[in-house]
Amino acid sequence: MKPRVLVRPVRETDGVELVAANLASIDVHEPWVYPCRDAAGFQAYLARSDGERSLGFVARERESGQIVGVVNINEIVRGLFQSAYLGYYGMAGWQGRGLMREAVAQVITHAFGTLGLHRLEANIQPGNAPSRALAQRLGFRQEGYSPRYLKIGGEWRDHERWAILAEEWHAPL
Questions:
Q1: What is the residue range of 120's domain?
Q2: pLDDT greater than 70 at residue 173
Q3: pTM for this model (two decimals)
Q4: Which ranges carry the N-acetyltransferase domain (predicted)?
Q5: What CATH number corresponds to the domain at position 20?
Q6: Environment class of residue 92 by beta-carbon count within 10 Å: exposed (0-12), middle (13-18) or buried (19+)?
Q7: What is the pLDDT of residues 31-56, one digit of tens each?
Q8: Residue 142 resides in a domain
């Protein structure tokens, strides 16, 4: 079956559209994530997505070409660890169609295949039911709970730690 989502690394030409999609999705994103909302924020995101320590991916619906979400691989550690953090968020109007499941699955396959990583960890706020459900559907297991783990929206927030290993990954059809 042909993928409904095209995923590729973020690039300069995504800036205006990504900022607009993020602004239109504030009600979906907050309080879980606060992505770039202006040109300066986008430039900072693009600079962080350097391909060494972090990779940012834009997911577009194949037919329309519209941005449906973002998937990030952050804090890549090589050597004996071969691990990274996985983050993702979808855009308003695209929820409930399985498009982010496809996008995140493509990035996980890239992480374990092309990048040769061994482990991915997703840290999810306990009240973020859609993100928790997505992690579960993709085979992540909950490994623990971290109080006041990440500062998001100016507040230290609790997170659940979800993880998957390369040998556990089975890309959904």
A1: 5-168
A2: no
A3: 0.96
A4: 5-167
A5: 3.40.630.30
A6: middle
A7: 999 999 999 999 999 999 999 999 99
A8: yes
* pLDDT tens for each residue of 102-136: 999 999 999 999 999 999 999 999 999 999 999 99
Query: In this structure, is residue 122 part of a structural domain?
Result: yes
User: Token pair for residue 151?
Assistant: 């500062």
Cα–Cα distance measured from residue 27 to residue 22, given in angstroms and rounded to the nearest whole number: 10
What's the CA gap between 55 and 121, in Å, rounded?
A: 15
Q: Is residue 173 part of a domain?
A: no
Output the six-digit token pair for 16.
């205006």
Instruction: Say which residue the tokens 């499941």 belong to.
Output: 101
Query: Do the beta carbons of residue 67 and residue 89 sit within 8 Å?
Result: no
C-alpha span between 146 and 79 (Å, rounded)? 25
Measuring CA to CA, which residue among 153, 170, 165, 166 is closest to residue 31? Answer: 153
> How many domains does one find in the chain?
1
Give whole-number Cα distances, 140 to 134, 135, 143, 169, in Å.
Answer: 9, 5, 9, 9
Contacts of 91 (CB under 8 A, 6+ apart): 21, 22, 24, 25, 28, 67, 68, 69
pLDDT of the residue at 169: 98
